[in-house]
Amino acid sequence: MKTKIEPFKIKSIEEIPITTLAEREKYLEQAFYNPFSLRSEHVTIDLLTDSGTTAMSSKQWAAMMDSDEAYSGSRSYYKFEDVVKEITGFKHVIPTHQGRAAERILFQCFDVTGKYVPNNTHFDTTRGNIEFNQGIAVDFPNEIGKIPEMRADFKGNMDIDALKAAIEKYGPENIPLGMITVTNNSGGGQPVSMQNIRETKEVLSKYGIPFYIDCCRFAENAYFIKQREKGYENKSILEIAQEMFSYADGATMSSKKDGLSNTGGFLVTNDDKIAEKAKTILIITEGFPTYGGLARRDLEALAVGFKEALKEEYLAYRIGQVEYLANKLLEAGVPMIEPAGGHGVYIDAKRFAPHIAPEFFPGQAICNEIYRLSGVRTVEIGSVMFGRKDENGKHIAPDMELVRLAIPRRVYTQNHLDYIAEAIIETYKNRESLKKMRITWEAEFLRHFTIRMEYIQ
Ligand SMILES: *Cc1c(COP(=O)(O)O)cnc(C)c1O
Fold first, then answer.
1. pLDDT tens digits, 338-378
2. Strand order in the sheet with 344-348
């Protein structure tokens, strides 16, 4: 059979709100033109994030019913630990309520104050946690990763030469740890090759720098390796994931992604000293080490979810769905990062709205218009999220201005994807009417969550 189908059927449904244009215009105004501030009951299709928005399976729900809510030593924790150890191979498994909690604990353990932490591209919470601890987050994406229209297999890779040069420049004593993010979320959900992970490991270990993986989308990355990297076509997704982790000293995870669950995270490490320190911080701030701020039923859902995420038929459907949407948009000429990433389509706002310079937030203007037209919520990853100001108040733009259409796992049907495509193509056809925007209020850290904006008339 040529037709690919969703490898599941639907047992329980949730109604979605259908709104009018006039209502959506009012909602946008009330949200200060920041889709993050919209109430989700006003959002018809929510592509804000793939984080924690997964539909869980009947097996996950069943496991949750069977959880053991003991404070200490719960069997639900040991189930979780067994699965995480099987996949990652690390000695210490520390559950956290989300990925950012694992990050915060990691950067407190390593004491990043005044020091550099390299990554292919830090995610916003990772950068935020480093900077909050007075560290310096530095990104070394490879050159091709910065060119949206250039197709390549592994655009999420670390620039190994730039990493080496940085270590020489800053001195290894000023780099407490190095990281790599799979897939590279802020760089377009693009995969990182096994070879690149191996080379990153080689460079860091030559200088005695510990290596941690930000592994939120380890299963999606492993699937891309199987599809695209020579020598991996006959390996299982689990074997590929295990090899990825084998090069690292530890990892941080947001289980809200490839944990196929609605919350959770973990920190894993082989380092006894780091684990001891991490558990102390965990107990003070998150919870006891056999639950780490989660209900034990969440650990049950995760133990099942990690396994389901590694199933090849699931990943083929998942990555295939993103590709289906990307192809529809490409046929209509919508500029994007090519090829599509693992968890979403990233529209290139610079080419979409070239009449709006980065300091006037082209991505935000596109997000607002897509919502106004259709009730589809997307998110800007560009000057709103990562823009800075220099000493003179001049705008410093990030490399790319993107609009992310993050696809929740196992949630939307092909008909939903057709509706999304229509909304974006319509916005693209009328792109010349998109207006410049400015900020009216912003928070000190992670400003995009609460930022207030307006159109410049
Ligand atoms: C989501 C995400 C995080 C943070 O995880 P939370 O669970 O949202 O705290 C960190 N890194 C990457 C790459 C992510 O995608």
1. 999 999 999 999 999 999 999 999 999 999 999 999 999 99
2. 344-348, 402-406, 379-381
User: How far separated are the first and last CA of the chain, in Å rounded?
Assistant: 54
DSSP of 139-166: E-B-GGGG-TT---S-TT-B-HHHHHHH
Residues 143-181 pLDDT 10s: 999 899 999 999 999 999 999 999 999 999 999 999 999
Cβ 19 vs Cβ 42: under 8 Å: yes
Domains of the chain plus CATH, in order, are 21-50+311-455 (3.90.1150.10), 58-309 (3.40.640.10)
| Residue 259: predicted pLDDT | 98
Name the pTM for this structure: 0.95
CA-255 nearest atom, ligand 1: 7
Q: How far is the CA of 71 from the centre of ligand 1 (A)?
A: 26
Whether the ω angle into residue 183 lies within 30 degrees of 0, i.e. cis, is yes
What is the whole-number distance in angstroms between the Cα of residue 189 and the centre of ligand 1?
Answer: 12
Q: Where are the alpha helices (DSSP H) in 375-443?
A: 383-386, 414-429
Task: Determine the residue of 104, 214, 253 to mutate for testing ligand 1's pocket, defined as the one with the most ligand atoms within 8 A of the Cβ atom.
Answer: 214
- What pLDDT is recorded for position 1? 86
Ligand 1, pocket residues at CB < 6 Å: 51, 98-100, 123, 125-126, 181, 185, 214, 216, 254, 256-257, 265
Selection from 423, 301, 406 nearest residue 366 by Cα? 423
Separation between Cα atoms, residue 126 and residue 398, nearest integer Å: 16
Distance CA 92, CA 292 (A): 13
Q: Label residue 384 by pLDDT band (50, 70, 90).
A: very high
Q: Produce one character per residue of 423-436: b if its CB has 16 or more CB atoms within 10 Å, e if not.
A: bbeebbeebeebeb
DSSP-derived 3-state class of residue 267: strand
- Do 299 and 73 touch, CB atoms closer than 8 A? no
**pLDDT value for 29:** 97
Say which residue the tokens 């076509």 belong to.
Answer: 233
pLDDT tens string 423-450: 999 999 999 999 999 999 998 877 888 9
